[in-house]
Specification:
Elements (H helix, E strand, L loop, with lengths): L6 E2 L10 E10 L18 E8 L5 E3 L6 H4 L10 H18 L6 E5 L5 H7 L4 E6 L2 H9 L4 E3 L4 H11 L2 E7 L8 H11 E12 L1 H7 L11 E2 L2 H9 L3 E9 L5 E8 L9 H11 L5 H27 L4 E4 L3 H10 L9 E2 L17 E2 L3 H5 L3 E4 L5 H7 L1 H5 L3 E4 L5 E2 L1
Parallel strand pairs: 5-6, 5-8, 6-7, 8-9, 13-14, 13-16, 14-15, 16-17
Antiparallel strand pairs: 1-2, 2-3, 3-4, 4-10, 9-12, 11-12, 17-18
Bound molecules: zinc ion.
The site of zinc ion has 8 residues, from loops.
């Protein structure tokens, strides 16, 4: 017999049984598993999309993670596709090289290295680089661009093997991929095994404080096992003899937090920014369950508003298409139940996604050129984090009278 409980057995950061659910978005298909026409005929699995908050360490976590193999063996999100993101990754490399004083002989490892976009930035500084990436299709792209990449999942066993072969890492980076890790203990043990005594781990991710301010419920999907604020990270790294040495909030992407982590035995100083951000989080209420419950209420309010807006436009005879087929777009479409009866198509610049259908709702993904050919009255902006870049590119669509629908934090038409 299945017992439905509002409590998760154990928090993945502090291992205490103090996790309570606050957001249930129903069952959805995996957000990055776009389908071929042939696959549309087959059964498509769906998984519960629910999030809980740990009162022990403030860690916000996916309730039931899906096995990574179902998501990452073939991956359609390519970092270099967006010029904004690719510029940002170059700036990450520059900042890390400068801050850590990396020199020629140093090894930089990027976990979840995608197509090698970040490591190309490091290579320009003359350091050694190695990517670790499970998606075979991306490893091919990275190697062709001259970035040495190990094809596999990061784990303690992998870290030990790669350290023997390549030596200790002076910097280990993980941008966004750090949100994907269900087994944090094995990952941290691997980091501990590979990092040099003065090495630094640099992570960057969509910051929970930004996510909540943006009402970005769509960035909740099964790949994102974790929704980090700084507080639980202090707990997590402490268990492995490490500490946060500096943090930096960045306005790019969705609002990122960059966190630098060192060994407690290392000689690098801890910046004041760490204590300051912890205080700011407490003031924001990130240490109270009630804050998350209010967030969930606002999310459901907006979901109903998105549905009403789109159906209203459709009934008035308007044509609507989507712009951007990011993973989060599929959370939005699946949770709001927006299908091909509402959106004629979704335009996306990524060739890997064109010709495929969105998971769950089965909306066709087409090249961006289709927008001016069809000139839909409205474009639902699913990649809202790149709004500026997209609106600049779609100047002609706007000149011809096209309008954008921005879905979060409150749906609006511009
Ligand atoms: Zn916890």
């Amino acid at each position: 017999m299945m017992i439905q409980s509002n409590r998760l057995d154990e928090c993945r950061v502090c291992h205490r049984k103090r996790v309570r659910k606050f957001l249930s978005l129903g069952k959805t298909a995996l957000a990055n598993n776009f389908l071929t026409r042939e696959q549309l005929k087959r059964h498509e699995p769906v998984y519960p999309l629910e999030v809980g908050y740990c009162r022990g360490c403030r860690y916000v976590q996916l309730w039931k993670p899906v096995p990574p193999k179902a998501m990452f063996d073939r991956y359609l999100y390519v970092s270099s596709t967006s010029s904004t993101l690719s510029r940002h990754l170059t700036s990450v490399a520059d900042a890390v090289v400068q801050k850590l004083g990396l020199t020629d002989g140093d090894l930089v490892v990027d976990i979840g290295s995608n197509d090698g976009c970040l490591l190309r930035g490091f290579k320009a500084h003359g350091v050694h680089v190695l990517g670790v990436e499970p998606a075979r299709n991306l490893v091919g792209l990275a190697r062709r661009a001259g970035v040495a990449t190990y094809n596999g999942y990061f784990s303690l066993a992998t870290a030990k093997r790669l350290r023997r072969r390549y030596g200790p890492a002076m910097a280990v980076t993980a941008t966004n991929s750090f949100l994907h890790i269900p087994d944090l203990d094995d990952y941290l043990a691997g980091l501990d095994a590979w990092m040099a005594p003065e090495g630094v781990f640099v992570i960057e991710f969509h910051y929970l404080a930004d996510l909540m301010k943006q009402g970005a419920f769509d960035t909740v999907y099964h790949e994102h096992v974790s929704y980090y604020s700084l507080h639980p990270l202090i707990f997590l790294f402490d268990r492995f003899g490490m500490e946060v040495m500096d943090v930096k909030r960045l306005p790019v992407h969705h609002g990122q937090l960059r966190v630098y982590v060192k060994r407690k035995t290392g000689s690098r100083p801890v910046a004041d920014s760490v204590a300051q951000l912890l205080d700011a989080e407490t003031r924001l209420g990130l240490g109270r369950y009630a804050t998350y419950a209010v967030f969930a209420r606002n999310v459901f309010h907006n979901i109903r508003k998105i549905q009403r807006t789109l159906l209203g436009l459709k009934r008035s005879g308007a044509s609507i298409a989507g712009y951007g087929a990011p993973a989060k777009g599929n959370t939005l479409l699946n949770v709001c139940r927006i299908g091909p009866d509402v959106l004629d198509f979704i335009a996306d610049k990524s060739r890997l996604k064109q010709g495929l259908f969105t998971p769950g709702q089965h909306i066709p993904v087409v090249p961006a050129e289709k927008i001016l050919q069809a000139q839909p009255d409205y474009l639902l902006l699913l990649a809202w984090n790149f709004a500026e870049e997209i609106m600049q590119e779609q100047g002609e669509y706007i000149r011809r009278g096209g309008k954008f629908i921005v879905p979060v934090p409150r749906v609006r038409i511009i």
